[in-house]
Write a structure and sequence with these properties.
Helix 3 packs antiparallel against helix 4. The protein is of the alpha+beta class and 246 residues long. A hairpin with a 2-residue loop joins strand 8 and strand 9. It has two domains: 95 residues, Pseudouridine synthase I, catalytic domain, N-terminal subdomain (Alpha-Beta Plaits, 2-Layer Sandwich), CATH 3.30.70.580; 134 residues, Pseudouridine synthase I, catalytic domain, C-terminal subdomain (Alpha-Beta Plaits, 2-Layer Sandwich). It has five helices and ten strands; from the N terminus they run E-H-E-E-H-E-E-E-H-E-E-E-H-H-E.
């Protein structure tokens, strides 16, 4: 028996999220279906670094699973990719230590959120970026981002539907926005993230960019520890799980 670690990319448009659930197809279900086929019908459970919601994408999702099959890593990648849908891709496969855990061994994650900031929508980005047609004050967004960085209780920026029972203190090492023509890329690197945290942060930062809130209000929102103090949740399709650190 050996443990394999895989980096997985997926377009989340047509999935009800990463994690297996009763209603709707999921990324996990598709990968496990392929693994069951390779193991002659025997169920193989995969464990991921974390779950992503319906419509959210990934470039750097990491999973692990155990297998008795003696197949070279390069063949695993080829075999799995031939059996899963084209909107999921196994990018890397390597043997991991027997005690490696895709979820519990993470030391940090990076998320990116893409915004198309132009008066006209871009048809070919509609599944991968949120369209914001109003002009945005990037300097104000920059100032607000700098106030997010550091260790804070991010209760305000966590969905009320969360199942987290313990501390909501997290450390954000980097919160920035890059401008590439009409495309904005929000980058968040941190020790961990709460349910919908990145989407709520982006939704609030867009309100700052539109002049509906002042950058300094970010600190007041953090202090409030109340979801109602923050802005709207940005839609899922602009969000990517970009990288997981170990």
């Amino acid at each position: 028996m050996k443990r394999l670690k895989c980096r997985v990319e997926y377009d989340g448009t047509n999935y009800a999220g990463y994690q297996v659930q009763p209603n709707g197809n999921t990324v996990q279900a598709e990968i496990e279906k392929a693994l069951a086929s390779m193991h002659k019908g025997e169920k193989v459970k995969i464990t991921a670094s974390g779950r992503t919601d319906s419509g959210v994408h990934a470039r750097g999702q990491v999973i692990h699973f155990d297998t008795p099959l003696q197949i070279p890593e390069s063949n695993w990648k080829r075999a799995l990719n031939s059996m899963i849908p084209a909107d999921i891709h196994i990018a890397e496969v390597e043997e991991a230590a027997p005690d490696f855990h895709a979820r519990y061994d993470t030391t940090g994650k990076e998320y990116r959120y893409f915004v198309w900031n132009y008066r006209e929508p871009d048809l070919f980005r509609r599944h991968f970026s949120h369209h914001e047609k109003r002009p945005l004050d990037i300097e104000a967004i920059d100032r607000a981002c700098s106030l997010i960085e550091g260790e804070h209780d991010f209760t305000t920026f966590c969905s009320s539907r969360t199942d987290v029972k313990g501390s909501k203190v997290r450390t954000i090492h980097e919160a920035t926005v890059e401008v590439h023509g009409s495309e904005l890329v929000f980058i968040f690197k941190g020790s961990g993230f709460l349910y919908n945290m990145v989407r709520i942060l982006v939704g609030t930062l867009l309100e700052v960019g539109r002049g509906e809130r002042q950058p300094e209000e970010m600190l007041e929102m953090i202090e409030a520890r109340n979801r109602e103090a923050a802005g709207k949740t940005a839609p899922p399709h602009g969000l990517f799980l970009w990288k997981v650190d170990y």
